[in-house]
Specification:
Among the domains are: 92 residues, Immunoglobulins (Immunoglobulin-like); 78 residues, Immunoglobulin-like (Sandwich), CATH 2.60.40. Helices cover 0% and strands 54% of the residues. It has no helices and 37 strands. The strands form 5 sheets. It has a 15-stranded mixed β-sheet that branches. Strands 2-5-8-11-14-17-20-23 form an 8-stranded mixed β-sheet, with no helix packed on it. A hairpin with a 6-residue loop joins strand 25 and strand 26. It is elongated, with a radius of gyration of 34 Å.
């Protein structure tokens, strides 16, 4: 009699981190050191280092001596007792990877990719010595702590940074996505992005315009919390900045407060302004940078059109200056027969003067600041 033996093979799959190994740092040292890593917290070191798909707990002081990429099933957790720092190496969290930071983290570049999950605890300050990039459509980023970015900041289209933290940017910034509700911003730092709950000052308006006496900077606040003072700074090259005024804040206020400063210095090239707001405890933020060109001089003063009758004088005057302009009409003997002051605008100005002149030859002279120009006018009866 033949016996049929049926073998049942039971295969048990685990759905979590099938290809991952969990590592713990157990001594201080360089990331690439094999004896630094154990399979249990405080356990015996192995002869292996983690790879990009492993689960990695930082519980000691680690020097990141190589660039690290975490993706797929990989997780990197910097615990509250851990420290991961480098002046030269970068960290990237790829699709499916995750980063949680409760301790100290400093890297050269930091990059987050689509489908990565990021949690930065509120007690944490991450120092990024160069550039930060949150790539397009990366929405799983929650930053309740602080990012200090020494270089450029890029938050891609469709990306979102949630939570309620602070982002300080020293270099160029492009905030095409959303960070704490703010979006579509770009410029040159310093720049600070704060969630609404942390803003010491809530701005209503912030502008700079040309006037005939200079550049007028105006801003107003809806609320102020521990606001000590504002500092207005200007630059012509975005590198060298100088302080032009300091204005006291309202300290604490829930009313609308309006502020202004008129920079009477002639700006012959594009000039950049920024306002630094300083709290009572010395912390500060920068408002967005503004730029303007306000020429108070008038090297281009021209009388480009003259038409006259015995009753009226029609002029077309071109100027880049904004200060008052004097129009003088005199006869050939130098006798002034008409004078008028106008407040010009940049570019072409159309001016009509009542003159009641007799037939004859006249001189129309324009004077504005240190510039002048003149033109002869022959008036005859029709």
């Amino acid at each position: 009699m033949k016996h049929i033996i049926i073998l049942s093979i039971i295969v048990v799959f685990t759905t979590s981190n099938l290809f991952s190994t969990t590592y713990y740092s157990v001594i201080d040292g360089n990331w690439s050191t094999n004896q630094l890593w154990a399979l249990t917290s405080g356990g015996k070191p192995t002869n292996f280092t983690p790879n990009q798909s492993d689960i990695i707990y930082i519980e000691t002081d680690i020097n990141l001596d190589v660039d690290i990429v975490i993706h797929s099933t990989g997780r990197l957790i910097v615990t509250s007792i851990g420290s991961l720092t480098s002046n030269t190496s970068s960290l990237e969290i790829k699709n499916g990877g995750s980063l949680e930071v409760y301790g100290n983290l400093q890297v050269y570049n930091l990059t987050f990719n689509n489908s990565s999950d990021i949690i930065i605890d509120e007690s944490v300050t991450i120092n990024i010595l160069s550039n930060f990039e949150n790539k397009n459509n990366t929405t799983g980023v929650v930053i309740n702590g602080t990012l200090n970015i020494g270089g450029e900041y890029y938050n891609g289209n469709g990306s979102n940074i949630g939570g309620c933290g602070k982002i300080y940017i020293s270099g160029e910034y492009n905030n095409w996505g959303t960070a704490y509700g703010f979006s579509n911003e770009q410029g040159i730092g310093p720049k600070e992005i704060l969630c609404d709950n942390l803003l010491p000052v809530k701005l209503i308006d912030y502008t700079v315009v040309c006037t005939k006496t200079g550049s007028l900077i105006e801003w107003s606040t809806a609320t102020e919390t521990d606001n000590d003072f504002f500092t207005i700074e200007k630059s012509n090259d975005l590198i060298n900045w100088k302080i032009v005024s300091t204005i006291a804040g309202a300290i604490n206020s829930n009313n609308i407060n309006e502020y202004y400063y008129n920079d009477s210095e002639s700006n012959e090239v594009t000039t950049y302004y920024r306002i630094k707001q300083t709290d009572l405890d010395g912390n500060y933020i920068y408002f967005d940078m503004l730029s303007i060109l306000c020429k108070l001089s008038n090297s281009s003063l021209k009388l480009i059109g003259v038409n006259a009758s015995v009753e009226k004088l029609n002029l077309i005057i071109s100027t880049e200056g904004l200060t008052d302009l004097n129009i003088i009409v005199s006869d050939m003997n130098g006798k002034i027969v008409s004078t008028e002051y106008i407040s010009p605008i940049k570019g072409a100005n159309f001016v009509t003067l009542d003159t009641n002149l007799k037939n004859g030859l006249y001189i129309v002279k324009l004077i504005q600041n240190n510039a002048s120009t003149s033109q002869k006018l022959l008036l005859t009866s029709n």
